[in-house]
Amino acid sequence: MSLAGYEVEVQRDGGLTTEEMTLNMGPQHPSTHGVLRFIVKADGEVMRTAIPDIGYLHRSIEKISEKVGYHGFMPYTDRVDYVSAMQCNQGWGMVCERIAGIQVPRRGEFCRVIACELGRIASHLLAVGAMVQDIGAYTPFLHALREREKINDLLEELCGARLTFNYMRIGGVAWDLPAGYPEKVTTFLDKFDPFIDEYNDLISYNKLYVERLVNVGVVSKEEAINYNLVGPNLRACGFKYDVRRDEPYSIYAELEFDVPVGTGEMGTLGDCFDRYMVRIQEMSESGKIVRQCLNMMPPGPVLAKVARKLKPPVGDAYIRVEGARGDMGWYVVSDGSEFPYRTKIRTGSFAAMSIVDKVSRGLMIADLIALIASFDVVAPEVDR
Amino acid sequence: MTPVEVYHKIKERFGEAIESFNEKALDPSIVVKPDAIVEICRFLKEDPALAFDCLSNMSGVDYLKENKIQVVSHLYSYPHRHKIVVKVDVPRENPIMPSVEGVWKAANWQEREIYDLLGVVFTGHPDLRRLLMPEDWVGHPLRKDFVEPEEYHGISTRRESLLK
Amino acid sequence: MQEFIDRLIANGAFAGMPVEVVYALMMLLFGLVVVFGFFLPIAGVTSWLERRVWARIQSRIGPNRVGPQGFLQWLADGIKLLLKEDIVPDAADRPLFLFAPYFVVWGIVATFVVIPFSSNLIIADMNVGILYLTAVTALVVVGVLMAGWASNNKWALIGGIRSAAQIISYEIPAGLALLPVVLLTGTLSTQGIIRAQGWAPWGWFAFHNPFTFVAAFMFYVAALAEGNRTPFDIPEAESELVAGFCTEYSGFRYLLFFMAEWGNLYVIGAVATTLFFGGWQVPLWTDSVVLLNISQFTVFFLKSYLWVLISMWVRATLPRVRVDQLMILCWKYLVPIGFVNLIGTAIWMVIWPHGNRVVQYGMVLLAVAVLVQFFRRVRFHLRRARPELYYSPAI
Lengths: 384, 164, 395
Known about the structure:
The complex is a heterotrimer of chains A (384), B (164) and C (395). By secondary structure, chain A is an alpha+beta fold. Chain A is 48% helix and 14% strand. Chain B has 164 residues and is α/β, with parallel strands linked by helices. Chain B is elongated, with a radius of gyration of 18 Å. Chains in contact: A-B, A-C.
């Protein structure tokens, strides 16, 4: 039980004693972001600080990698960020391929990108849906989940699982696309593009919703870079940087897509509304990427031949992959054996949690919920 | 800039603080003495030609056989789009090194995590306490010689092996 | 009702009993009839209907297992909550904690006394009916504050205080929205207000002049805020405060809070109908008193239930406002508009003491035009988004 942060400030003026109220927004909370705890010191409704207390979902995944080996770690990577598990799979695959010098076949890369982008759409749907639900609108959340169900069905057809996919392997992907898959994906994408317009009409520009989000939690570009905010959180501050475009990996260099940036259209640049709109716009971009991939897919194998007991040379490697919550850094140290010596996963939500304390000064308690939702924090990423 | 050029720029300014430079690795890395880490990081961040404004990752690696803990920082520059790896070795018995939190705020939680899981003490850190483990946990779990305690607050950690 | 009982006594129905005892027994009987025969089923059926309507708006089905179309779901929930363990937190203020839900329910059920279901079906046609209504709904504040304080839970306290501030603040716009109608009729009695309206839309007070039109919607908004309904459901904001002031409650006391809320939905609809939308007025189509009363009751019920359905629709669509935005809305926007309405209606009455037929017809046409535009927008959105539509109400 952590008692840090429970010290209370007592003020006495003119015979009236006021105290700060220490509230515990506990690990169990209906806000759908996992087990996160905040110790909120509030002066009525206005917060003085909100100290995050993490570690409730710490499963020591990094230490487990030292026991299960390179191939065996792939299912564990799904659990690092289970909302967008495909990108985590790709991250681990890429870092092992880099350190072992394995080349993924071209068709395998295309399958990876299709899976990742569909996963990104699914993750953003959940992020956006959970955000509107925290603000209080119950309907758009369920509409977003309805679309996410369709993506889950597509991914289930691809790899057999709906949440923790374990689809990729070191050296490619496990299975090729099933027969008739491109048509199904195209049908889904055709229905999905007008859905984003409907969603925007329903909630994005609704006056009540906009009033809740504008000018809340403004993060400037310099602050964002200093705290290592990544992904949509960084792009919402007006900084156009995407790992897929600026440090391209896999086949992203050949694909054409735009990187949406926050514009401060409704309020200040870098507030919660910008972070929300960047995610909405990224969903359509991911749809474009999937369409291009389906058109460009070459025939061939999807998995390179990799040794059963993979023994990379001694050394270390670091790669960054653009996950749904920003770029994830994967660092692996190899000592020549078939088990990694050290794995480190640096996730986007980790930095987002660290900036919450600073950004939440002076906000109201209701704004704290909107802030955490707009940073798109998922607890498994923070704690690993 | 390539990592070699970065290395030369650091070397001409902080020659004696650099211990080694691994050029042949996948990610060329510079090993730096612990005392000089803060000045070097500040130089890396503020020099206009280098401009490493993003601390992309900071991890601690426990080398039991060489009796050291290595803190690896991956730096990235958004203006110039180049990267470098800076490593610091601290002895295992007394792992103390200065904190770079004043240079990049991103290091705040990264250093807390390294302290929590590996026991490296970062001097000058404003709030060095455990991050992931509970406040009253004993030991540093990510160390190679970490032995799980028998119980925690009366809950036993021994369980029968499922593999029998 | 009093005349009815007096006539019965005069006809010798209760020979030998003192009048006061007859009155007391009748009051008890009517109270039981209202609570068990009307309030409870209404609250329960509204909860079922709300879940079904919500579900269809959210592209899902809603309860459909317990009984035909899930109609008995509310009974099942009620029985379940009755059988649950009644937990009182150890450090809670026990008498306040146990008593708080009852204040909330009293505040709502007591309003049924003046709701005119038809020209003869009203429990007590007090000549201060509207004033009584406003006063009695303020009991809810007492109950909510008691619940929040007595729970010994900081989050419940915050929810209780927010709710008290909200309800007290929105009493003012609600009262200000009632006043134009009182000016127009000169009476506070609910039956009197309905009798001053006609059966046709252009006879209703909502379309009498532009100021009462605005007052009608202002009343609806203020009444929603008083009833803690989205977009003003901050006290029970699920994603922030778990359940707000009723977090620590379980079992039947929890049910009481929610029954009060659903019953209040009906009261909002009934009062809005009474004041602005003609109440039970129907054209005199028959001489039979019974048939006339039945038709009046049906019309009143349908009109007030339409407002209940609109409340459910609003709750499903709109997000929540923040506490400070709520207060700003009340004090900076609704109260000035309320005063403008009041003074505007007074000036209107000076200029046109018997109302202005042209304006009334014009307002009705305006309302019809708004409805037509609404349906056109719905058609536009359906064409643009091309969602899959399921027309059958019963899935």
